[in-house]
Amino acid sequence: MRPRRASRLAATDALTPPEPTASVPPVSAPARHVWTNVNRPFVAGFLLTLGGIAAFALGAAISSLVTIWIYIAFALFVALGLNPLVQRLERHGTKRTWAIVIVYFGFAIAMAAVIWLIVPTVVRQIAQFISDLPTMIGDFQTTDFYLSIAAQFGDQVPNLLGELQRFLTNPANIAAIGGGVLQIGISIGATISGTIIIIVLSLYFLASLPQIKHAFYRLLPARSRTLAADLTEQITDSVGGYLGGMVVLAFCNAVLTFILFTILSLPFPALLAVTAFCITIIPLVGTVLFWGIGSVVALFSSPVAALVFALVYLVYMQLEAYVLTPKVMNKAISVPGSLVVIGALVGGTLMGLLGALVAIPVTASILLIVKKVVIPKQDAAV
After folding, report:
1. Is 377 exposed, middle or buried (0-12, 13-18, 19+ CB in 10 A)?
2. HSE (CB half, 13 Å, CA atoms) of 261?
3. What is the pLDDT of residues 144-172, one digit of tens each?
4. In the chain, N or C: fewer CB atoms in 10 Å?
5. Could you give the dihedral angle defined by the CA atoms of residues 264, 270, 273 and 275, in that order, rounded to the nearest 10 degrees?
6. Where is the chain membrane-spanning (predicted)?
7. 54 SS3 class
8. Where in the chain are the domains?
9. Phi-psi region of 106 (alpha: psi -120 to 50; beta: other; left: phi over 0)
10. What is the pLDDT of residues 306-328, one digit of tens each?
């Protein structure tokens, strides 16, 4: 009986299909990360300390190269500002090399003419301003405007003018403001060397601008190169046009200042014209700032002439804001007024003068990228 039963059970097992067995994945050892392993705190702390030191060293290296970045940014902006002139010569059949030579030769002649004609006059007028300052303050004290202020505030006004006169006529105070005579000399030397570096770098950037663009395109995927090339050309053209427009507007301010100071017989017309050009090239706030400076300087000579200058320059500011700026800038760059103000404030806060100069082109570039890239993607999304 037992053999038959055993054989019957074996036959039954042979007819019954085997039950599937669940595959059990092999148990792997838990991942062990050195930097999160609490069993090795010394190694983790050592690696974290090395990472912090490396990050600190990288930040210090970047911050120590701020001057170099500023030189590069100014040189690139000069190159983009001169590039439209080079392209215009190229459209007339001039090779790019000779076009660059012609543009820089004309730029050098213009700079030499400015230095030769204006700098000696400006230096002479600065010396004259320092020597004539006591006489100007004495004449100002005889005006009705000063007498009315003195009657309201008492002896504080004469004391304040006396302190101002003694401060401005003492060269030691001016040297102390600049950190000493040696520091002033170092600053002048650094400014001259920085200007030379910017000019040389801008020449290299202008000569190799097509190669730089081509190398940038090669870094992008092939499907994106056409759009990137189109955006880059529009951005560089807008930056060049913007810088050219700012120079034109600053030159108009300088010419108007020189004419007004000459007609009104106010002192130092050449000095104030150069000051107007340097200040009004700053977008938004430059014109308003020089309006205050020019009015204060004219006030020391003649209150009536200062009032006339302030009124005429105020009218010019409206003309520039509503007529000249739209005509000069609209072809090169188009940014809403609110974004112009916000961009200039942010750029000036973060990077000073350089940030204020680049704020509007950067804002225009961002708007162009949003218009050409972001909005089409959103429109194509289902």
Report:
1. exposed
2. 27
3. 766 777 777 666 666 676 666 666 656 55
4. C
5. -120
6. 42-62, 68-86, 98-119, 174-207, 242-264, 270-291, 298-319, 339-370
7. helix
8. 66-207, 223-375
9. alpha
10. 899 999 999 998 888 777 777 76
